[in-house]
Amino acid sequence: MAAGKPSVELCKGVGGLEKVVLREARGTSAEVYLYGAHVTSWKNDHGEELLFVSSKAIFKPPKAIRGGIPICFPQFGGFGNLEQHGFARNRLWSIDENAPPFEGNSCFKAFVDLILMPSEEDSKIWPHSYEFRLRVALTPGGDLILTSRVRNTSADGKPFAFTFAYHTYFSVSDISEVRVEGLETLDYLDNLKDKERFTEQGDALTFESEVDKIYLSTPTKIAIIDHEKKRTFVLRKEGLPDAVVWNPWDKKAKAMADFGDDEYKHMLCVEAAAIEKPITLKPGEEWKGRQELSAVPSSYCSGQLDPQKVLYG
User: Fold this and answer.
1) Exactly one of 24, 31, 181, 271 is catalytic; which is it?
2) Which helix (H) or strand (E) covers residue 169, if one does?
3) pLDDT, tens digit, for every residue of 265-305?
4) In this structure, are residues 134 and 155 in contact, taking their beta carbons and an 8 Å threshold?
5) I need a labelling partner for 88 at 20 to 30 A (CA). Which of 76, 81, 143, 300 fits?
6) Is residue 38 annotated as a catalytic residue, yes or no?
7) For residue 238, which of 252, 255, 219 has the smallest C-alpha distance?
8) What predicted TM-score, i.e. pTM, was given to this entire model?
9) 89 annotated as belonging to a binding site for a ligand
10) With the C-alpha atoms ordered 313, 29, 22, 61, is the resulting torsion angle positive or negative?
11) What is the CATH number of the domain that holds 41?
12) How many distinct structural domains can be found in the chain?
């Protein structure tokens, strides 16, 4: 791809929904829809798509977009009056012209700041006063950084609590050729077994059936290794102690109207999250959760990536 200058462009996307296109000098790009503050594309300098979005994804409110990086807020999962995974992913966000400065991000040129504030309708189902600011940034090297800041703006002195996840769908060549490193020996809650707690036994996670697990007290760095593509995704996170790993496999894939029957083979969700211990904010307090994604070539020695280099280097 031809090199150019970093750019930020607001334009129309699928279904006439507005999106912001971020481009970096080396040809990397990302797209984020104002609907849901939803990242739907992240491409490397060869123009290869690194995120998975279903061919059957519905770009029409109030349906959340299937794939990319949905924002799960103010809850992950479903309980009470709130819909599954909260409402942030199917609300229209605004471009935040008055975003306070983000520490350490001053060198980035390709970024957008978005903001969500409670509507009257939302206040009926989740009666709290907040500002949710999200910055989506593309680094000069092509890494994708999402920084969320949630502030309690209540005037009534009441705290509130929430759970959260960046529900990232990675594009993979073949799920049976993928391994995840950095979660071995950790405790997890198995959503397929009523959130029963187990300890991960394997050297690394590999996939041969449906998986839906919440790993607890996870490291700040997780590697997703795609053997066939010789590519490793590195997920770095701050303020997000948990990690969800999800693939619906064949039966659940067939049951989802907005997901192709065989598409489970080409995606894997690894999600930076805060689920086990909800985040509580008193009035005036702010929480920050950051996720940085990079894609690097993997080189193999007897079929294995050197995990020390990826996870601790």
Assistant:
1) 271
2) strand 169-171
3) 999 999 999 999 999 999 999 999 999 999 999 864 434 44
4) no
5) 143
6) no
7) 219
8) 0.93
9) yes
10) negative
11) 2.70.98.10
12) 1
